[in-house]
Amino acid sequence: MMSKKSRDKTPEHKSEVRPISSPDLWGKIAPFLITAFIFIIYWNSLQGAFILDDHVSIRQNMSIRKLFPISIPLSPPENTSVSGRPLLNFSFALNYAISGLSVWSYHLFNIVIHVFASLSLYGVIRRTLSTPRLKKTFQEKGESLALICALIWAVHPIQTESVTYIIQRSESLAGFYYLGALYCFIRGADSDKARIWHGAAIVSCALGMGTKEMVATAPLVILFYDYFFLKGSFEKALLQRPFLYIGLTCSWAILAIIALGARTGSAGFGITGYGPLAYAFTQFGVIVHYIRLCFFPHPLVIDYLWFIERNPVSIILPGILIGVLLFLTGLSVFRKSPLGFTGVWFFLILAPTSSFFPIPTEIAAERRMYLPLAAVVTLTVLLLHPGIEKLSALRPFLKPFKKIISAILVIIVLMIFGTLTIRRNRDYHDPETLWKLVIKERPRNCRAFFNLGLFYLEHSRRDNAIIQLDKALAFQHESVDIAEIHYYLANLLYEKGRYDDAFRHYDDAMNMTPGNVNIMVDYGIALARRNQLEQAENIFRKALLIQPDNGIIHYNLANALEMQGKIKEAIDAYEECIRLDPDYPDAYRNLGDLLWKQGKPDSALLQYEKALQLKPDWQEVQDAAARIRNQIKK
């Protein structure tokens, strides 16, 4: 009979790493230091404005206006930054419930997410440095080294796009789930409650899949972690943790169902003028640029609008560097070198956006370095640490100052990065400043000129808007809707009385998007106002071929017909407009006017009365109705 003591020692789980020791001083204060640093560095981000994609995905997003029924915020609108990302959309619904469209809660939420992600990274690094493969190398320095890595990662200026630009919470929130999944997996390797921890890893991974597509690589990263630090074999990892890896694999189904189909318009094969190889070759330079920003984070650009690289020299040189890094990563996998995991982490996380799968709207984006930056920072810190140790060994007089030297270096780095981050946050306070900075660094950026033009238009600075929109047309890019630029220019130029120029831009906009009814209607109205009635009529009739049940088009067609003296056709068009849109008072009024002119006072009065039911204070219609009543009485 087994004793109670022997029964308590279940054979189902055996710790694969040495139990992590109780935190030292640095370990105890690390969470408070990380949290304090982040709030200090990012506090001025609370004053940031809604910019760029924030307007469509948050300000104009009706699905975040209600929390219940929960199906509404979990069904984000199509063709936006929240498409296929229900949990991201739900997080904005929480913000809207708290502060409406006041930006402070959105920014505060982003800061808190970054805090949790940084704490998760600290936990991952701390526990990794306590594994048997690294424990001896880093001895008792695991706590402090993990803290240094987490702090540098947290305050690094390249993170501002993921934290300060509200809609890019997608990156930081997904990053938190990604790190959470890895942390829970590591905890499961050092716990007699492995299934609970691994279940939490699966849940965190699944939540990440519902937040952003980049989490798709999380199961692979966890498998590689298992290979490098725990099992030492892919086969052993898969065979001995079937529950974990089956669960992680199943989480891909979430991504397939809710995310991939919703974003086919912004990424994928067949929607660009170049192939996957051209995109992949361009990414050599992009990745090298990312690496440079890790060490020299200036200047930062919110919208690169990177062009496909055609110059062989600009492809080959960065390609050699990336090839060397990939070779070293592959070699580390073959040799099971622990530090090689940073290379796997870096390249696997970047793979969905920085390999051969085209994303024409953004070939390069700093936010994509949110998680890969952790690999660069950790590898750099861990490689520099032995150097300081060797320096003190070679120069004995430096040994007493070893800790002081290390602390000074860390403080200098944190001060530089922290200062740059605070300054970068200020750029987000004013969209005009932000776009001017983009133009300064990327003078061929069509989208930057376009958005600066829209900013001026929104603030009634129409002359400035025309100048910027003209510049946008000078640097066309396939990811920018050029027809939309022509459309805005046409409307502005018409207002300025430059009719020929306006009509030319209307023509260009229509030719580029022949099915855009909004452009056709505005063009038709502009032509009718300039007494080019036959052209206006033709455009309205073409629009009706596309949207025959659009009451607005019938109304404007009726106006054009009336102005040409085609009264019967105009009456028919007004009646069709009313049938389709019975709450359109102007249609009733205009129809009443025509019936009055045709000598049908009773019918005209009926239309005026219907107009007044919708718009009771309409003085002109009241007077017209009163005249008809007086005439009927006589």
Question: Can you walk me through this structure?
Answer:
This protein has 634 residues and is mainly alpha-helical. It has a domain of 322 residues. It is built from 30 helices and no strands. It is elongated, with a radius of gyration of 31 Å.
Question: pLDDT below 50 for ≥5 consecutive residues: which ranges?
Answer: 1-13
The helix-and-strand class reads mainly alpha
- Which oligomerization state do the chains in this entry correspond to? single chain
Radius of gyration: 31 Å
Task: Estimate the strand proportion.
Answer: under 5%
- What is the helical fraction, as a range of percent? 55-70%
**For the report, how would you describe the main beta sheet?**
none
Q: Could you give a quick summary of the protein structure above?
A:
The protein has 634 residues and is an all-alpha fold.
Q: What are its keywords?
A:
single chain, 634 residues, mainly alpha, 68% helix, disordered N terminus
